[in-house]
Amino acid sequence: MTLSKELAEIVGAEHCLTGTDIGARYAQDLWGSDRKGDPQLVVRPGGTAEVAAILRLCHERGVPVVPQGGMTGLVSGGVPGADEVVLSLERMNQVEELDRSTRTMTVQAGCTLAAVQDLAAEHDLMFPLDVAPRTAATIGGAIATNAGGLRVLLYGMMRELVLGLEVVLADGTIVNGLHKLVKNNAGHDLKQLFIGTEGTLGVVTRATLRLRPAPQCRFAAMCGVADLDAALDLLHRLQAALPGMVSAFEAVWDDAYEVLLPVRDEITLPLQKVHPIAVLIEVSGVDAGKDLDRLHRALDDCADIVGESTVAATAEQVGLLWQARERIPKQILQMQPLFGFDISLPAGLLDQYLSEVREELRGHWPAVKLLVFGHLGDGNVHIAVVTGEQTRDRKAVVEHIIYRAVRRHGGSISAEHGIGFEKRPYLHYSRTAEEIALMRLLKQTLDPRGILSPGRILDEASQ
Amino acid sequence: MTLSKELAEIVGAEHCLTGTDIGARYAQDLWGSDRKGDPQLVVRPGGTAEVAAILRLCHERGVPVVPQGGMTGLVSGGVPGADEVVLSLERMNQVEELDRSTRTMTVQAGCTLAAVQDLAAEHDLMFPLDVAPRTAATIGGAIATNAGGLRVLLYGMMRELVLGLEVVLADGTIVNGLHKLVKNNAGHDLKQLFIGTEGTLGVVTRATLRLRPAPQCRFAAMCGVADLDAALDLLHRLQAALPGMVSAFEAVWDDAYEVLLPVRDEITLPLQKVHPIAVLIEVSGVDAGKDLDRLHRALDDCADIVGESTVAATAEQVGLLWQARERIPKQILQMQPLFGFDISLPAGLLDQYLSEVREELRGHWPAVKLLVFGHLGDGNVHIAVVTGEQTRDRKAVVEHIIYRAVRRHGGSISAEHGIGFEKRPYLHYSRTAEEIALMRLLKQTLDPRGILSPGRILDEASQ
């Protein structure tokens, strides 16, 4: 019997797609690089037992499998390689339980981030992870990539928000670790193996998520400051004045801010002038009257370092500020060709890093533009390099310049997007040979036939 | 050449102890069970390279090794088994760097928790992990056991406070992952393998710790409440009123509170009456005047569920409350013989759990006492069962009753103390067969000769 027939027996014929039945969504990241796969076989299991049966079969046959969530990744991790069976979790999109007493939600991996956020909000709770493609991104994908986003500063990355996981191993073994406990030192915390390993060690099928009390009010402000030191000083002074309340601290450097000027009719431009750095601060509180006063006072106390500021006091105004912030990557993505990066550094080194990189890039392309924005509170910025023409040679030069400087300053070549295929050649810039050898050992141990997302993170040849 | 001579060549003769030169500190946990080892060989390396050389040698020879920190564990993990070489990290007790700009501290594994806390405080920063034996407990031990303690509620367990690790593997390979980054998705987050695995997968030699801004003021309160529901309601109302400020929420059930009565001359008894549950709340803030008012107002708003309360407004008063709280386990430990437990449950189930367990124990020993206290905010309590006589048979009966009920309610047999030797027979009460098989696979992969802390967490026979 052919593989597709056997897979169809597991999931039902209508959920085993071949040939022209396979839609474009299975071939490529929604907003990632232009790497495109040519999937020949897509299976859409309806539950964990079906995922296990699929993997058992593919393991026996030595057939490679790539799990897919919402395809909102940015490193082509979900883009199918040749001969890979696409394992789409899209049908496993149910919330199984919201437990108010433990403030947990147990969901299937294909559940979208927005669905989880919305259901939590209906119960006056909050699931704090937030990324722009929230309506498409899935919980399974967020776990596989240890997603970060806009509120890591106060609530942590996805790793901190998962209490329990159910995972199917490469050979089809189901490991049910759907615990609801905040503290559990009964042996290894096995979920840590699967969070952030991009589907290369197992397929996440269900998760128990940790919810937080919903803030009763949210305010925001945008401030223009003169340089990085002022921005970091502002962060630390606001965190000291408003402890536990600064839920986002996003920075936009001038060149990136300027992409908003041509669309000023469509958005509300927050500041009158273009400052060296514009900072978006979000504050989450419990007392709408008092907390707004506290934010105003805290900003007044920072008048010596803030050039211009605007405070968003209503939900609508807060929404407009976020709309402006989220418009930036959208505008930048239209400036193709560009080379995009997601790096982290000790935050205090960012200005030095950027000036070194800018100078080196200008040596190659005098008119090069560096558009920089991101999660300054976490030392994580996104950089778009616009050199004009986009060639393979040029890509290699830009990547070397960006990543060599990251290595020099002890940073990470991937703060939150992961490695996938795209950053694999540079993994050793942020990890030692011994660390990479240990990753390889784990991969060989958990997936001895190399069927799970082969070639992501680590190259296949030496797996 | 004998093993001891070769080890002496690595660390120097004065740091390789044999026979009667071996002090009592290497044989037994300071406050744990009465399991006692009979160490024949103790090595005290002065740095990572020496640790690597020791492990390389022991790996070649197939000699088992047990790393030791401050011996403040409670599950006999550091107690040497027969023929085990004791690898004491006591000489590796230096702080290597405090980096104010990244708010990190890089320390050797043998550095004490108190030393780290004190140095952070000198720089107006805080290392938030706190456990009673802070002057003896080491950072390496806290990492190996994923320590919890008094402030997990606001700051997380040790896992959340470690940014980078240097580890020596069983074969002597040094894996340097001393990163300072909050966000780093460049491949596997390997430190997770070693945090909480009790020295069975590698020896932690150095760590980069995450520091927090020091709170500018701390207040506390003790409240008597009528039952568990009231205690949890109080917690949630205080967290809502004082977001990001409730840094501890400790509960003491009546029988445990009563152990303070005989020593009321030595401590300040916080409450006039013995309530079903006494709760100690700690609040960390930034504005001494306003935050104390906020605490008073928040407590006033909870008058309907608080029977009696006292607020500690000065550092001295706060200290007295903590002194009373920390006196409880000390008094209980004097009530030998007793059987001690460290469990976690979904917090809302604790009362039902305790009444089921109490009833079952009374069936065996009508006069049994259950002394219960702990970190209610995390669903984690410590239970001391006093049955009178302490025999092996009786121990087995008590453990079965305590742990069967934990299993029934989906709890953990070890919230923060780990498994070690002591809880190994019950690991499967909190973990599935597939989870345990995966732990075994990791152990076999990282320590194929089984030389690192053999028999802890998993039994040796099947390793």
Automatic annotation (TrEMBL), chains A, B:
Q: Which cofactor does it need?
A: FAD
> Which Gene3D superfamilies has this protein been placed in?
3.30.465.10, 3.30.70.2190, 3.30.70.2740, Uridine Diphospho-n-acetylenolpyruvylglucosamine Reductase, domain 2, Vanillyl-alcohol Oxidase, Chain A, domain 4
What does the UniProt keyword field contain?
A: FAD, Flavoprotein, Oxidoreductase
Q: Name one GO biological process term.
A: respiratory electron transport chain
Give the highest taxon in the source lineage: Bacteria
Any one Gene Ontology MF annotation carried by this entry is:
oxidoreductase activity
Q: Which InterPro entries match?
A: FAD-bd_oxidored_4_C (IPR004113), FAD-bd_PCMH (IPR016166), FAD-bd_PCMH-like_sf (IPR036318), FAD-bd_PCMH_sub1 (IPR016167), FAD-bd_PCMH_sub2 (IPR016169), FAD-linked_Oxase-like_C (IPR016164), FAD-oxidored/transferase_4 (IPR051264), Oxid_FAD_bind_N (IPR006094)
Q: What does the similarity note say? A: Belongs to the FAD-binding oxidoreductase/transferase type 4 family.
By what name is this protein known?
Answer: FAD-binding PCMH-type domain-containing protein
